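User: Please fill in residues for this 245-position structure.
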């Protein structure tokens, strides 16, 4: 089958990796690079899950470090390397590309896209169109425009606003005020602090980087492990209900 995936989220990339051995898969992403900037906590419980995707050399870029809740890591490098693996496995990555509209042509879904620097076609047909767009604001407020009747939507959970801050280990107090939901150290001498409320601590010297993002309230559902499991369940649904094999 010819399958289009809308949105270069982790869910979209994981689905593309699992579908690519049996189907022609295209991922559409508005940004120039998938996974940058990293709008997500660098959090994994079982790094062994990465063995199916990354080499030891690629894993070294993640700067994994064990912590109370599992392991901290650099999420942007996880996304970069998963994207590289997707391309190596035959996934077509259409970055800096916006879907302008969708229509039906018999059994096929036809999408018209914006043009970019490449000579790729702007009109494509798919057997299935899977929507894995997240709610993050894109540059210029751009978004994909599709008829909802033409897509199978990924079942994202209800979300709330999280606040995240990155700071040096040397500026990390013990205990951290206002009890972060996640404390994620990395082996580059930096730590991510995450709160799932509007009450959070700010160090006197400030954070190296601050992030506000919509995520599931329960911290266990923001780990790579939980997202990997949910994409596997969604793929099973596609196999059973949508007859994607």
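Assistant: Residues filled in for all 245 positions:
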């Amino acid at each position: 089958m010819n399958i289009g995936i809308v949105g270069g989220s982790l869910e979209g990339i994981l689905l593309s990796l699992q579908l690519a051995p049996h189907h022609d898969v295209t991922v559409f992403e508005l940004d120039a690079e998938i996974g940058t900037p990293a709008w997500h906590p660098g959090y994994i419980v079982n790094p062994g899950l990465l063995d199916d995707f990354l080499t030891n050399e690629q894993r070294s870029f993640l700067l994994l470090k064990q912590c109370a809740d599992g392991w901290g890591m650099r999420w942007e490098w996880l996304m970069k390397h998963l994207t590289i693996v997707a391309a190596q496995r035959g996934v077509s990555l259409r970055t800096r590309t916006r879907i302008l509209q969708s229509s039906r042509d018999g059994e096929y879904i036809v999408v018209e896209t914006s043009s970019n620097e490449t000579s790729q076609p702007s009109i494509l047909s798919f057997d299935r169109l899977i929507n894995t767009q997240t709610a993050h604001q894109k540059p210029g407020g751009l978004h994909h425009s599709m008829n909802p009747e033409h897509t199978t939507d990924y079942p994202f959970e209800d979300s709330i606003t999280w606040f995240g801050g990155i700071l040096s280990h040397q500026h990390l107090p013990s205990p951290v005020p206002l009890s972060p939901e996640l404390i994620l150290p990395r082996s580059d001498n930096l730590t991510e602090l995450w709160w799932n409320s509007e009450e959070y601590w700010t160090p006197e010297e400030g954070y190296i980087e601050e992030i506000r993002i919509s995520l599931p309230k329960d911290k266990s559902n923001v780990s790579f492990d939980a997202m990997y499991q949910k994409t596997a369940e969604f793929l099973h649904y596609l196999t059973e209900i949508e007859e994607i094999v």
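For context: The longest strand covers residues 160-168.
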